[in-house]
Amino acid sequence: MSRENLSKGTKKVSRPLRVGILGAGLVGATAAIALSRLQDVKVTVFERSPGPRIAGAWISLQVSGLIILDKLLELEQIQRILYRGDNNGTYMVRHWRTGEVIAITPSSAHIADKFKQGRTHRVPLLDVLLSNVPRGAIQYSRNAVGHQVTEDGVHLIFDDSSSETFDLLVAADGLYSKIRRTYLPEEVRYRGSVAYRKVFPESQVLHIKGLPNDSSSWRKDGEVMFLSRLGLGQYGMVTIFKETPEFAATLYWAKNTGSEGLSRLRERFASWDPIIGQVLDTMQDVDAYPLDSAPWMKQLVRHDRIAFIGDAAHPTAGAYGAGATMGFGDAWALFRSLQESNTPPSSNPVTSSQTSQSLYDVPRALRLYNETRYHFLGRVEQQMQLDGLDAAYISEAAHDKAEWIRRFQERHKNNTWLMEHDVEAEFVKTLASEPLWAAKG
Ligand SMILES: Cc1cc2nc3c(=O)[nH]c(=O)nc-3n(C[C@H](O)[C@H](O)[C@H](O)COP(=O)(O)OP(=O)(O)OC[C@H]3O[C@@H](n4cnc5c(N)ncnc54)[C@H](O)[C@@H]3O)c2cc1C
Fold first, then answer.
1. Could you identify the atom of ligand 1 that is nearest to the CA of residue 240?
2. CATH code of the domain containing 26
3. One GO MF term, please (predicted)?
4. How many CB atoms lie within 10 A of CB 187?
C-alpha cells in the first residue's frame, strides 16, 4: 500500500521512492547506477531501442566526468578502455595546413593521473556503464510518447497505451526529448555543420610515417579534424565542417555515406596537412551526423516531479567534447540531492512506528539539483557565445597565417573551469547556502 505524508507543502513518501528514468544512453545509464545506490528507491529505466544501442565514434572523457565515474564504479574498468597517448591525454592543437602545434590543452598539473582527460569509443563505454546498472532495471522496446502529472505522480505513457507511475521522472531522452518539448516547444534546428566520424582498426594506419601518437586536432576557421588512437586497438577520425542545409537534409544521424562521402572528405582536406589525407586514404567509408541543437533549459526541473539530465537538458552538439561529462555531473548532482533529502525512518518520529521505509523530500531534492547545476550550465552556454565572438575575430585574419596564429593563441582557452568542474564541491556549496537561495524562492 502506498502512503504519502503532506506537510507544509512538501510531499514525503513512506514507501520506496518510485524513480523512472527515460533513456538508457550514456547519461541515463549513469543516472541508473547512481540513483540505484539510494536507500529505499526503485529505479526503472525505459529505452525505446530493442537493446543497448549507441551511434557515433570516439568520445573524450574529461576530468570532471572521470572523477564522478570513480565514485560510481571501479575506475579501472574505464582506465582499461581509455587512451591518453604521448602527452597524457593533452590535445595537441595544430595549424590546419602545416600541422605545427599552435596550442595545447593539458589537464591541470594538480589533477591525479587517473583523472586526466582521455579518449575512448562509445560502444565499450556504454558497455561498462550498463554492466554497472542493476540487473533487470532497464526495460528495452519501451517507447514513451507522453506524460501526465497528477497528485499521484508522473504517469509515463507508452506507444502501446500502457503507462507507469513515478514519484520522480528523470528525463534522459536526449536532444530530441519529448518530455522537454512539452515545456519548451522550440524547434530543434540544424546548426550549420555536419560531423563525419569513424572508428577503425589502428593496424590500418600503422604504416603512416610521422602519424602523431597523441590526440590531435587540426584547426581552420569553423572547421576541425580530430585524429587519435582510441585504445583497444582502434583508431578514430572525427571532423566537423559546414554543410548547406540542403545538403545536410540528404543526411541523417549515423548515415554511412560510403565511398562517395569519403571522396568528398578527401577533396575537402586536399590542401590540409598531408598526414590527414594519408589517414583518409586508408578508410573505406565514413558516417555522417548532421548537428542539430536546441536552446538549453534554464530550469532543469518541473512540477516538483521531473528532472532533466544530459542532452535532454543541454544539447551541446559536440561542443567542448564534454556533453557526456556534463550529463555525468547532472546524474551525480541529482543523486546527492536525493540523498540529502532522505530522512531515515529511525530519525523520523512521525513515521518510525508506522513504516521501516525511508522518506524522500522530492521537491527539496529537485530544488537542490537545479540550484547545483543551472549556474554552471548557464556559464557554459555563455562561453559558447564568447567563443563565437573570438572565432569571428580570429577568422578576420584568415589570409595572414602569422596573424591568424597570433590571434588564435591570444584567444585560445583551455577551459579547465569547465572540464574540471567539481560537481561535488558545487553541491556542498549549494547545500551550505540553502537558507539564502531557498528564501528567495
Ligand atoms: C559530434 C559529436 C561529438 C561529441 N563528442 C563528445 C565528446 O568527445 N565527449 C563528450 O562528453 N560528449 C561528446 N558529445 C556529446 C555526447 O555525445 C552527448 O552529450 C551524450 O551522448 C548525451 O547522452 P544522453 O544519454 O543524454 O543522450 P542520448 O545519448 O541521446 O541518449 C538518449 C536515449 O534516450 C532514448 N530515448 C529517446 N526518446 C525516448 C523515448 N521516447 N522513449 C524511450 N527512450 C527514448 C534514446 O533511444 C537514447 O538511447 C558529442 C556529440 C556530438 C554530436
1. 1
2. 3.50.50.60
3. FAD binding
4. 9
Residue 164: CB within 6 Å of ligand 1? no
C-beta of 227 in contact with ligand 1 (< 6 A): no
pLDDT in tens, 206-247: 999 999 999 999 999 889 999 999 989 999 999 999 999 999
Residues of the chain with pLDDT > 70: what percent? 94
- Rounded to whole angstroms, the Cα distance separating 270 from 93 reads 19
Q: What is the pLDDT of residues 274-301, one digit of tens each?
A: 999 999 999 999 999 999 999 899 999 9
Nearest to 118 by CA among 363, 316, 321, 366: 321
User: Closest ligand 1 atom, CA of 172?
Assistant: 26
Give the count of domains, the chain.
1
Phi, psi dihedrals of residue 197, rounded to the nearest 5°: -140, 150
The three-state secondary structure class of 308 is strand
Residues whose CB falls within 8 Å of the CB of residue 148, separated by 6 or more in sequence, listed in order: 154, 155, 157
Region of residue 194 (phi > 0: left; psi between -120 and 50: alpha; otherwise: beta): beta
Reported as half-sphere exposure (CB side, CA atoms, 13 A), residue 408 has a value of 22
Nearest CA to ligand 1 atom 52: 318
Instruction: Classify residue 7: in a domain, yes or no.
Output: no
In a domain, 228, yes or no: no
Cell readout for 398 is 584568415
Residue pLDDT, tens place only, 141-170: 999 999 999 999 999 999 999 999 999 999
Nearest CA owner, ligand 1 atom 29: 25
Residue 276 — φ and ψ, nearest 5°? Answer: -65, -45
Distance 11 CA to ligand 1 centre (A): 32
The number of the ligand 1 atom at minimal distance from the alpha carbon of 158 is 42
Q: Is 20 in the pocket of ligand 1 (CB under 6 A)?
A: no
Q: What SS3 class is residue 369?
A: helix
Residue 324 Cβ contacting ligand 1 at under 6 Å: yes
On whether the pTM is more than 0.85, the answer is yes
Residue 238 lies in a domain: no
pLDDT band at 357 (very low <50, low <70, confident <90, very high): low
Residue 197 lies in a domain: no
Residue 341's SS3 state is coil
Which atom of ligand 1 approaches the CA of 59 most closely? 8
Q: Which residue in this structure is represented by grid cell 542539430?
A: 292
Owning domain of residue 321? 13-188+294-439
